[in-house]
Amino acid sequence: MRIDIITVLPELIKSPFEASILKRAIENKLVEVHFHNLRDYTTDNYKSVDDYQFGGGAGMVMMIEPIDKCISELKSQRAYDEVIYMTPDGTVFNQQIANHLSLKGNLIILCGHYKGVDQRVRDLFVTKEISIGDYVLSGGELAAAVLCDAIIRLIPGVLGNETSALTDSFQDNLLAPPIYTRPREYKGMKVPEVLFSGNFPKIEKWRDEQSYQRTKERRPDLLDD
Ligand code: 6GU
């Protein structure tokens, strides 16, 4: 997989890719992530990427020309499966979308800033519009980092234990069950006895029940669909 991230603030999004699981995935060549600073695609002396909106109103709008130049250059080099625009009015991201995107080859992610991009960018280039939740961030960069983390960890070989993504919360529309490690008893609090039984079907059944109970209490909406 290759991800090209288009942004006016590369320094805001780079660090998550320089640590931990994402760093290792890049080092092991399981994914390539490239950052493109929109200011490098500007045509005027001021390197403007935004301007006032037609019709008036507060807030700047990202102009189409630098975005067109950047996307066109990338598309001249390879084919892309999706051009994703990060925006609070997009489809709300979830595990199902992460699973779907993790199977793609080449992705462009465009980070919105200010009031957002000129509508013609969305009409002309964007194939998917994604939000990470119903709250507003100052830009799409942190949302893009969240999206990339969720996608990249699903690529085979990225997680040490390849089965572990399959037992994540949400993979079966249920929350994960409680987990324990040593010590067996801490300040009087004991680990549930069933986990020492060695009876794996029984342990699986207990975990399934716990997952269901937890989901019912915390996220009954997940049980509806
Ligand atoms: Cl993708 N961008 C911004 N600016 N705010 C958000 C978001 C995206 N998703 C949730 N809030």
Structural class: alpha/beta
How does the major sheet shape up?
5 strands, parallel
Low-confidence residue ranges: none
Name the overall outline: elongated
| SSE topology string | EHHEEEHEHEHEHEEHH
Q: Helix count, per DSSP?
A: 8
Bound molecules: 6-chloroguanine
How many E-type strands? 9
Our count of domains comes out at 2
If you had to describe this structure to a student in words, what would you say it looks like?
- With 225 residues, the protein is of the alpha/beta class.
- It folds into 2 domains: 151 residues, Alpha/beta knot (3-Layer(aba) Sandwich), CATH 3.40.1280.10; 56 residues, Trp Operon Repressor, Chain A (Orthogonal Bundle).
- 33% of the residues lie in helices and 19% in strands.
- The chain is built from 8 helices and 9 strands.
- Strands 2-1-6-5-7 form a 5-stranded parallel β-sheet. The protein has a two-stranded antiparallel sheet with strand order 3-4. A two-stranded antiparallel sheet has the order 8-9.
- It starts with a strand and ends with a helix.
- The mean pLDDT is 95.
- 6-chloroguanine binds next to β5.
